[in-house]
Amino acid sequence: MAKKLAGDGVLVSEDHLLATLYPGQIRNLDEFATASRRMRAAMAPHFVAILRGGQDLYLDFQANTVRSREWASLLAGSAGAELVVHYLDVSDAICKQRLADRNAEGEHEYQVDEATYDQFSAFFVPPSEDEGFRVEIY
C-alpha cells in the first residue's frame, strides 16, 4: 500500500533500511528498538530536508505506538509539513494472513512468524487525530 500511496513522492522503508544497515543483527524486539532508534536519529535531518524541499515523503515505518508517531509529528512540524497517518484497520487474522502471504512470496527483507507479530502488536495503540495529525483509515 505504501508504494501505491507514494506515487511520485519519496518512499522510504524502515525494513529496507534496517535490513541493509544491520544485516542479521535484529533478532528480537530490543535489538529492533535500538537499531530503529539509531537509524531514525541518523535519517531525521534528511527527511526534514526532503520535506522542506517541497517533496512528498512517505515513510513505511512502524507507527504502532504514540511515541513512534510523535517522532513523525516532530519531523513534519520541523519542516512545516502536514502529517497524515494511513491506518489499515483490519483484524489480527487478516494481518496474519497477509504476513503469511508476504513470507511465502519471499521478497520482503524479513520473514516474520506469528509469535513475533503478536509480540510487536501487543504494543499497538490505534492512531487518533487527538495526536495532532490527520488519520486516513482503510
TrEMBL record:
Any GO molecular function: ATP binding
Source organism superkingdom: Bacteria
Keywords, comma-separated and alphabetical: ATP-binding, Nucleotide-binding
Name of protein: ATP-binding protein
Native species: Sphingomicrobium sediminis
Taxonomy of the source species: Bacteria, Pseudomonadati, Pseudomonadota, Alphaproteobacteria, Sphingomonadales
